[in-house]
Amino acid sequence: MGIVERLVPDDLWELFQRVVPEAPSRPQGGGRRRHGDREVLAAIVFVATSGCTWQQLPTASFGLSGATAHRRFSEWSKARVWAKLHRVVLDELGARGELDWSRCAIDSVNMRALKRGT
């Protein structure tokens, strides 16, 4: 198992594919081939979990540069991919009964603060 598969296991990859937007088409043709979404996601996860900068991303491990990973991170952020992925993961875990909502209690009681005299 390579670094990409360790950072983005099959289960996560399946969920991510539900929320990632289609790659934009290039009607003019030509240019470089777009790097695969799974490799880019793994690079983003690596940067987020290792504490390295985009420039320090080990290109040989992922097959893409830090600049490419950052550009796709920005693109996906604008498309709200991370919020959508968060929701999909919560829905999946909830469907499996693997969420413990008891630790997420919200107190809905509203109280006015007491005014103390001087």
From TrEMBL:
Residues 9-86 form the Insertion element IS402-like domain. InterPro entries: IS402-like_dom (IPR025161), Transposase_6_like (IPR052909). It comes from the Bacteria. Signal peptide: none annotated. This is Insertion element IS402-like domain-containing protein. It comes from Streptomyces sanyensis.
